[in-house]
Amino acid sequence: MILFPAILEWWKPGQFMFSWTTLFVAAGFAVLGEVLEFVLGAAGSRQAGGSKRAAALAIVGSIIGGIAGIALPVPIVGTLIGACLGAFGGSLIGDLWAGRPLFQSVEAGRGAAIGRFWGSVAKLAVGAVIVVILTLAAFF
Length: 140
Fold this sequence. Notes:
- The chain is mostly helical.
- The protein has 5 helices and no strands.
- The chain has one domain.
- The longest helix is centred in the last third of the chain and has 38 residues.
C-alpha cells in the first residue's frame, strides 16, 4: 500500500498529493500493524499461562503456519487459519518442551491462537487506517 505511492512521489515529485510526511506516517502505521500482529500471539500464550519459550515459539509457529496456510484450499482466510494453527502448535511445543503438563500447554496454545487472531484483526484495522490516510492525501 505504501510502496506504490512512494514510487509515484519519487518518480514525479509534487505531481501527486502524497507528501513524504504522509508516507512516513503511513509506514509507521504499517510497522505498528506488524508488531501488533506478532506480539498479540505471544501475549495470548503468556496470558494463558504459557512459558517464555512457548511465547517465542508461538511467533515462529505463526510465521510458519501463515506460509503453510497459503496451500489451504480456503480462499482469503487460509493464511489466517494457518497462522492461528501455527501459533497454537508453536506454543504447545514450547510449553511441552519446558516440561509443563499437557492440559496447561494446550490452554497456552489456545491463548496463542486467539491472540494471533486478534493480532490479525488489529493489523487489518491498522491497514484500514492506512487506506484512509492515503486516500485523503490523494484527493485533498
